[in-house]
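HOLO CASE FILE
Compound: iron/sulfur cluster
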Amino acid sequence: MKLSEYHTRRGDRVEWWSPKGRYDLVYKSRVFTDTYSKDTIVVNNAEKVIQGGTGYEPGGKDLPYEIEHIRPDYFLYPRFLGTAYGFLSRGCPRNCGFCIVSGKEGRRSVKVADLSEFWRGEDEIKLLDPNLLACPDHEALLEQLAASRALVDFTQGLDIRLTNPDNIALLNRVRTKAVHFAWDNPEEDLTEHFKRFVAHTAIRSDRNRRVYVLTNYGSTHEQDLYRVNTLRALGYDPYVMIYERPTAPKITRHLQRWVNNKRIFHTVKDFRDYAPMKKEVH
Ligand code: SF4
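Model generated. Tokens follow.
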């Protein structure tokens, strides 16, 4: 979308690539590597093809500064008009083994933009920041979000370990429907952090406080169940994510179905009573 704006400003005509067209330049982007999807599109109707994205080159080149900081053009995605998408910060100090952010964007969270760079009064803001609370400037950035009065979606979640009464008070001033966190590492006890957040947040419904629980990444079933049950008891809505689903044990897939199907999760309180499990055991 930024490339589209850049080229349009230069007087170029921009459109989605079609195999029937003829182009001076085609940009081809790819998010995932071969492990997840195959690159099946061959472009042979352009003078020049530029490939980019983590799927081609993890940790590869960034956009030039003047393009990175341009306001994105929504012409290619008209259905997203009315929502402002963007990053206020990039990078993350955590370097979790299953995540590419620290390797790709750096092991520090740094401010990359003010909100005004990509928001022009839209009703909704979808933030793509990987770990906004790790950014030293996050309080000033939260102030900008609060002042916008737009509905803010922290699409990549917030880091519960970095919440404190001050930034929770700021978050309370941001218009948001829901927040989500993650409890990925079973060796780390995050109970106190989750308790503190519940005590200070203005988000009253536990359904709007979602927590992703990573499974099949070195944790035991007991550790998975412990995190799920603890989160529910603390007033959160757990959501089970499975790392490399095809290799996951059956019990983990059952756990995912039990937790993520909210009708079942709210009626069957104990995992041992969950029907598919019982059938297999007896
Ligand atoms: S905290 Fe989140 S963004 Fe940071 S490395 Fe871990 S998973 Fe990635």
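CASE NOTES: The mean pLDDT is 94. Residues 221-234 form the longest helix (14 residues).
CLOSED: yes
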